[in-house]
Write a structure and sequence with these properties.
The complex is a heterotrimer of chains A (261), B (273) and C (382). Chain A has 261 residues and is mainly alpha-helical. Chain A has a single domain (56-260), classed as MetI-like (MetI-like fold, Orthogonal Bundle), CATH 1.10.3720. Chain A is 77% helix and 0% strand. Chain A has helices spanning 2-30, 48-54, 57-90, 96-104, 111-125, 133-154, 159-167, 172-201, 204-209, 216-225, 231-260. The longest helix of chain A has 34 residues, at 57-90. Helix content of chain B is 74%, strand content 2%. In chain B, α10 (195-211) runs antiparallel to α13 (241-266) and α12 packs antiparallel against α13. Chain B starts with a helix and ends in a 7-residue tail after the last helix. Chain C is built from 17 helices and twelve strands. Classes of the chains: A mainly alpha (261), B mainly alpha (273), C alpha/beta (382). Chains in contact: A-B, A-C, B-C.
């Protein structure tokens, strides 16, 4: 009897996973489908949409913009995230909760609103539509993720470890370099990958501030607003592969830690 | 101080100041498609006196609330199974897998849902095999809701699973030993113990749905439009950025009130209820 | 990532690399490899979707060693916003609707005066095109017409007959309950309702308060029929997959593309009259590539440019010159015939203009654009 209920529950879990992954699988299947608006039964097999995307220089340029933005964002967001996480771990000071809120709030602000605010502000400064505009915004949005991941790792470090290094005569810096950094390295790699994935996927704020320096998700949004066609799915395959790889690496590094500790 | 500086500088310059600038912007005036700095409450008066603003506000609030409740309900049996019915390894793997789509191109997934939900789409083709339908799902509130679910379900399942898995098993066993039925155990022991995770899941679902503009536009046919669509419409319409700022600020204030109320509810000390 | 170091062998291999299908590394380097060859001049164009796509610009790019970098917008207000939010010098060429060209020109410092002698004004199919309202200011030309189209009733041919579609009243037909779509922009939609209410003289956009109230009332009565409000992509998809059976505020520019893709749709200019959209080019004053940009405008108005525009993949536009029409009839006779761009056809767009059935789309004259937009928001929320 237990088994019947458990089986039912397990089936439900499988159903939830199916719903979550259905669009990803569908998008992959449709990307090889000749019909512009896929219906069942499917049309014939084609690599037409991939050819179109691959031969489109605009796509490659967007891909390059996305890659550069994601890499720069990941590095800067992880550095800021580390310093903030370390601050939280090591120091007590007046207004710390406000400080932490500042670090963690950005994901709760709707993208449209942040995009609007960012565009208004950057264009006031004459900094909108530049190659670095999206990067400036993405660092704000990605830092909380880096901060959370690194803080989690720090909380698993024996607090006396760093103090012991100080007692042995290590300077603050060298204790940090030889004790703290090696310990949080997996979290740093994890944060780099995750923030790169977030930046690589972000479309709304990028749409507002990118101007002519479009990223891949902005191109997808423009196709969706303009001439909808399965090129979106073909691009989707590239995007899925990239972000999935990044998220998987990120998690593998997070999990190595759990099993070790 | 050195360690504090990077976050402070960056978030103030590119997060706090832009948001406050938005507040300032809401008092500017637009003449002949040009925005001029001013301190004029005209945008607030105009926007807040429009019926369509309040109907969009009510609609967005309702949709986000329904999404929060619905997604939490849909997520619970799955989270319960993952927390109690499978091994820790499987649970870890499940969370691992569920995190992936949360960070994976929402736009492309929504486009896929568009083709799945259409009148002659894949889902209706499936129903027609059962001699059912076709059902109209695309360009209705149902479509919008599907988008919200796609956006938030993985996250809510993860949050619930983690908080359920952290429940002290002995408490659950004790309830069983005292003759408490399965369902009653869930309702009176498990859910109260996992309250924080469940509420935080709801809050995240609410926040994400409340601000999303992709689902209501591409799956809901923007009929009726939500506040986020109203923002985009307003920016498109003759440089009415100040009015869009009014809508944006109203949304942020609403989100803060909801989040603070929910967190207060989650961390309310037991015994005060 | 030093692009200058990349030798020519990379260029030769470029196609092979791209064809081979691109590892992530190649993906990042590909644009460098492409640009390393001769560093084409970049022309930044602010336009409606599709004007900067390869089917329009590739030939010109190849011949003149330029590269178009498009920023697409949807709707004139959107265009003004994009322009205002970008630093001066961002764009070289603006492609816009005539009524918004007027706004650009009124601003005084955004776009340059042009030399009419540069363009085939003596070859225009209609006299109006040579002195299009709003394109001239103080006797100077600032914006050149390049294509246009007509808006009316767009419908699914399984749902309506052409005869039924010949009136805007068709949108209220019980057959279309819950199946009428709107292109999400107030001007064309409200313009059509204004025509239905008989506001033809002087213009459906020049109406007094009483007429405006009637337009609002009539529009609101359509609400129960409405399926949704769509951008171009959404309109296109919904017509194709049967989500909507008729659509207001659009015309052949959408249905031609859907039909080409196998959809059973068509557009007509109904008896109450139709709205004309008119697109034109202007050169941005802060551009540093004006000669090249002007050369491109001339190319667009040449017969071959006109044929490209009439067959544009994103959305077709009628030719504006006689030379363009002749070339179109020669190059793609089927398309010329289908769209009426041949002498003597009943749906010939020039004939329709001459019969007085066509009204140029415009910004509201007696209300502000804000009033119209405000009402549109109200309607969407009704």
């Amino acid at each position: 009897m237990i088994s019947f209920k458990s089986i039912l529950l397990r089936c439900y879990v499988v159903l939830v996973f199916a719903v979550v992954f259905a669009p990803i699988i569908a998008s992959f299947v449709f990307s090889f489908n000749s019909d512009r608006f896929p219906t069942v039964p499917l049309g014939s097999f084609t690599t037409h949409w991939y050819q179109q995307v691959i031969s489109d220089s605009e796509f490659w340029e967007a891909f390059r913009n996305s890659a550069i933005t994601a890499i720069c964002t990941a590095i800067v967001a992880t550095i800021i995230g580390f310093s903030a996480a370390y601050t939280d771990y090591r120091y007590q000071f007046f207004g710390k909760s406000v400080y932490l809120a500042l670090g963690l709030l950005p994901p709760t602000i709707p993208l449209v609103i942040f995009g609007l605010a960012m565009l208004a502000w950057l264009s006031r400064l004459g900094m909108s539509g530049q190659s670095y505009s999206v990067f400036l915004a993405h660092v704000v949005m990605c830092t909380p993720f880096a901060m959370a991941i690194i803080r989690l790792r720090l909380s698993q470090m024996d607090e006396s470890l760093e103090a012991a290094a100080w007692n042995l005569g290590a300077s603050h810096w060298s204790a940090l370099r030889h004790v703290v950094l090696p310990f949080v390295r997996p979290a740093i790699i994890s944060a780099l990958c995750l923030t790169a994935a977030v930046s690589f996927d972000e479309f709304a704020v990028a749409w507002f501030v990118s101007g002519l320096n479009k990223t891949v998700p902005v191109v997808v949004l423009e196709i969706l607003q303009g001439q909808v066609d399965p090129r979106i799915n073909a691009i989707g395959t590239f995007v899925f592969l990239t972000s999935m790889t990044l998220v998987v690496i990120s998690q593998v590094f997070l999990l190595t830690r759990t099993t070790k500790s | 101080m050195l360690w504090r500086a990077p976050l402070l500088i960056w978030q103030i310059l590119f997060f706090v100041v832009p948001l406050f600038f938005l507040v300032y912007l809401s008092f500017w005036v637009v003449k002949n498609y040009r925005m001029t700095p001013a301190l004029d409450p005209v945008n607030w008066i105009k926007m807040l006196s429009r019926d369509y603003f309040w109907s969009a506000y009510g609609l967005t609030l309702t949709m986000a609330t329904v999404a929060a409740l619905l997604v939490s309900l849909l997520a619970f049996p799955a989270a319960y199974t993952l927390a109690f019915k499978v091994s820790a390894r499987v649970r870890q793997l499940a969370v691992f897998v569920l995190i992936i789509p949360f960070f994976t191109s929402y736009l492309v997934r929504i486009y896929a849902w568009q083709t799945l939900l259409a009148e002659n789409g894949v889902i209706n083709a499936f129903f027609s095999l059962l001699n059912l339908g076709p059902f109209t799902m695309l360009n209705t509130p149902i479509g919008t809701m599907v988008g919200y679910i796609a956006l938030t379900l993985p996250l809510v399942v993860i949050l619930q699973t983690i908080s359920l898995a952290n429940i002290d098993r002995s408490l659950v066993e004790a309830a069983h030993n005292l003759g408490c039925g399965k369902l009653r155990t869930i309702l009176t022991v498990i859910i109260p113990l996992a309250k924080n995770g469940i509420i935080i899941g709801m809050v995240f679902c609410f926040i994400l749905s409340f601000g999303d503009f992709v689902s209501p536009y591409y799956l809901g046919g923007s009929k009726p439009p939500t506040l986020s669509i109203l923002i985009i419409d307003t920016t498109k319409a003759g440089q009415q950025w100040p009015k869009a700022a009014v809508v944006a600020i109203t949304m942020i204030v609403t989100l803060f009130i909801v989040a603070i109320a929910a967190v207060a509810a989650a961390y309310k000390r037991p015994g005060t209820r | 990532m030093n692009k200058t170091d990349k030798s020519d062998s990379y260029n030769n291999n470029r196609r092979k690399i791209l064809k081979a299908g691109a590892a992530a590394g190649a993906a990042v380097f590909a644009p460098y490899i492409r640009t390393a060859k001769a560093a084409p001049v970049e022309i930044n164009i602010l336009s409606w979707y599709g004007l900067g796509e390869p089917d329009m610009v590739a030939e010109f790019e190849e011949a003149n060693n330029v590269k178009f970098k498009p920023k697409y917008y949807a709707g004139g207000d959107n265009m003004l916003a994009a322009l205002a939010q970008s630093p001066p010098g961002t764009f070289d060429l603006i492609h816009t609707d005539a009524e918004y060209a007027r706004i650009l020109i009124e601003r005084g410092d955004l776009v340059d005066a042009l030399d009419p002698a540069d363009y085939p004004f003596d070859d225009m199919l209609h006299e109006d095109f040579t002195k299009f309202p709003g394109h001239w200011k103080d006797g100077k030309l600032y914006s050149v017409i390049c294509r246009y189209g007509h808006l009316g009733v767009s419908y699914n041919t399984d749902a309506l007959t052409q005869a039924e579609a010949m009136s805007y009243n068709a949108f209220w037909s019980p057959k279309l309950a819950g199946k009428v779509g709107h292109f999400d922009w107030h001007l064309p939609n409200l313009g059509e309702i204004s025509l239905l209410n008989g506001n033809t003289s002087p213009s459906p956009f020049d109406i007094d308060k009483a007429a405006w109230d009637k337009v609002k009332e009539k529009t609101l009565s359509l609400k129960p029929q409405v399926k949704g409000y769509f951008d171009y992509g959404g309109t296109f998809a919904s017509l194709k997959n049967g989500e909507i059976l008729a659509c207001a505020g659009i015309g052949d520019w959408v249905t031609a593309v859907v039909a080409k893709d196998g959809g059973k749709v068509a557009s007509v200019v109904p008896d109450e009259g139709g709205i004309q959209w008119t697109e034109s080019y202007s050169i941005v004053s802060s551009s540093k590539k004006k000669d090249l940009v002007n050369k491109y405008i001339q190319y667009c108005l040449s017969p071959e440019g006109q044929v490209k525009s009439a067959n544009m993949a994103a959305y077709p536009g009628f030719v504006v010159t006689q030379g363009g029409e002749n070339a179109l009839i020669k190059a793609t006779p089927d398309e010329a015939k289908r769209s009426g761009q041949m002498p003597g056809l009943a749906n010939n767009p020039i004939t329709l203009i001459n019969e007085g059935k066509i009204h140029y789309r415009d910004t509201p004259k007696q209300q502000t654009l804000e009033d119209w937009n405000d009402f549109w928001s109200e309607y969407k929320n009704a």
